[in-house]
Write a structure and sequence with these properties.
about 110 residues, about 15% strand, about 70% helix, three-stranded antiparallel sheet, elongated, 4 helices, alpha+beta
Length: about 110
């Protein structure tokens, strides 16, 4: 993944994780797998775990320890009301950015054609 992509993802990864948790609760490795299934194949597991610690500290998720057949209990993350509000703000911001960036792209493309 290029440096530019990495930098852009840093600003959006929290929103991506919140969006995945809005679909269904999940534990860390499962979240990483789902992110990779959506095409973000180069994201390291450690990045996701660090992000999960941050969103837990910000009280955006509820955490339940669930027994695991293969070792220690898993922490299952569920988006809570505060997390849903944060996700809503993320989508509002994303829509704003997307609209304005696409307008800039169109102007740049139009200028190249002239």
């Amino acid at each position: 993944m290029g440096k530019q992509m990495t930098e852009m993802l840093k600003g959006t990864l929290e929103g991506i994780v919140l969006a995945l948790l809005a679909e269904q609760p999940a534990y860390g490795y499962e979240i990483t797998t789902r992110i990779r299934d959506h095409g973000f194949t180069d994201i390291a597991e450690g990045t996701i775990y660090a992000l999960l610690v941050r969103i837990e500290q910000k009280n955006l998720v509820d955490v339940e320890k669930v027994p695991s057949e293969k070792g220690p209990p898993r922490k299952v993350y569920t988006l809570n009301a505060q997390g849903r509000q944060e996700l809503g703000e993320f989508w509002t911001t994303w829509s704003f950015l997307k609209t304005h960036i696409e307008q800039l792209e169109k102007r740049n493309t139009d200028n190249k054609e002239n």
